[in-house]
Amino acid sequence: MNSEYCLEINNSNKTFPGVKALDNANFKLKKGSIHALVGENGAGKSTLIKILTGVYKPDSGEIIINDEKINLNSPNDAILKGISVVHQERNLIGRFSVGENLMLNNLPKNSLNLIDYNEVFKQSKKWLDILDLDISPETIVSDLTVAKMQLCEIAKALSMESKILLLDEPTSSISPQDANNLFKLLKKIVSKEGVSVVFVSHKLEEVFQICDYVTVLRDGKNACESEKIETLDRKQLVKLMIGREEQVVKSKKLFENNNNKILELENINTYLGHKSINLSLYKGEILGLYGLVGAGRTELAKSIVGIEKIISGNLKLNSKSIKIHSAKEALEKYKIGYISEDRKKEGLILMHNVLDNTGITVWSQLKRFFNFLNDSTIGKKVTPYIQKLEVKTPSNYQLVSNLSGGNQQKISVAKWLAAGTDILFIDEPTVGIDVKTKGYLHELIIDLSKSGTSIVLISSDMPEMISLADRIIVMKNFIIKGEKNNDHNYQSMSSSIMEFIHD
Q1: What is the residue-wise DSSP string for 337-389?
Q2: pLDDT at 376
Q3: Is 390 exposed, middle or buried (0-12, 13-18, 19+ CB in 10 A)?
């Protein structure tokens, strides 16, 4: 045992039906460090995190915290040992105040055994102040930005006096500026509060920016263990993750405007607050919607496909005015699909299997041809997409809830690829996706456009946007700020886009 480590996992094994998730995996977290845990989707990262937080018990192996060999039988055991996790999906209670959320595990009581709210707000403010967060503890969580929710999650972890903080894709839904603020905060709590951080991310540029060490898992095994990040470059790290060099998808050729408008929005106003939205989408075009978190891009897509309401204006499909009342109608009547960024709430049915989730978009069209459905018929339709995206699952009958977050995202994408839509809205398609699959998805998007599918791409990943989109529309505060034809020159395009945002 080595006292320089606050956490050690030695020779950890974990098997689920049909798959060995961890195979003698090792992980060592040095005190006062930020340590990256990376790997492809299904490499074993989520399993390792769940073992560390007491959700899973390893089949074999040992866990050592501060030189003490321990057993973690529940998440509460992990908390008592000073381990907290901030998940990719927020776990705060939206209708509660910030103070209530921070102190939820230990709410102070008065002499009458009632919650002492003065003390709740007093104690929670202490932790907010440590993080230099200008947030009132009385603020209702649902009124916060996504970035501030993320920081409150970290404050909550600190309030439980955690010394080991696990961050799972912490920047997936925040802006680059918010990400930089988060990194400053992490460096502060490491140096001043004695916290050690495990940083799980697919954004390798962030790994190099913020982390001291890196551990790579591939197929449940260590591809490298506690390597100093300064000894590696991106090319070497990717090769450790996927077993070969990264294949970068080249920008598609410049889109030739064919004047074949497939979708038009004329002076659209929505219930959610969009004002006078005008845009056109051409056949085979990839139209990018860019903006910071909260710009109204996702909300606009939902309004178009009938999830939210359009209150005025004209929506035209192939030059004919239409009204769409639901996502079901959008798909079945107008062949318009929407890949949601929120896979758990909107993209998937977690307690159903892979086949059910992937096939749900094709049930109606298959029934028209065969009058009945069976697994074999559905499987023939959807399995090619499951295979193309390399979903790591023991079978098509595996519950989606048992898959890693990245593989869940692949299923969310695969079901819409199988649907064969004419227009496809794709909202943050590569969040939580490993570098290899990201390349596959980019190729699929380009291939879809070449085959005539019109795509509206919503992405906060500027390199992704500039690589893929033919035109880029920039949104801010639920209005369109500008539009640029994309020449795929990153330097010039990124500057032009940011000018619209900061205008």
Answers
A1: EEE-S-IIIII--TTSBHHHHHHTTTHHHHHHHHSS--HHHHHHHHHHHHHHT
A2: 84
A3: middle
Q: What is the largest CA-CA distance in the chain?
A: 75
d(CA 489, CA 31): 42
CA dist 402 → 162, 178, 236, 349, 408 (Å)? 27, 31, 31, 12, 9
Q: What is the pLDDT of residue 248?
A: 64
- Is CATH 3.40.50.300 what the domain over 260-335+423-434+453-503 is classified as, yes or no? yes
CATH number, domain 5-242? 3.40.50.300
**CATH 3.40.50.300 residue ranges for the chain:** 5-242, 260-335+423-434+453-503
Mean pLDDT of 325-341: 91
* Token reading at 132: 């230099």
* CA–CA distances in Å: residue 281 to residues 264, 350, 366: 6, 33, 28
Amino acid at residue number 192: K
pTM above 0.90, yes or no: no
Q: Do the Cβ atoms of 136 and 156 come closer than 8 Å?
A: no
Q: How many contiguous H segments (helices) and E segments (strands) does the chain have? A: 17, 20
Q: Is the dihedral of CA 52, 54, 58, 60 positive or negative?
A: positive
Interval 7-18: pLDDT, tens: 999 999 999 877
Mention every residue, 6+ apart, whose C-beta is less than 8 A from residue 162: 79, 82, 83, 84, 195
Q: What is the pLDDT of residue 369?
A: 60
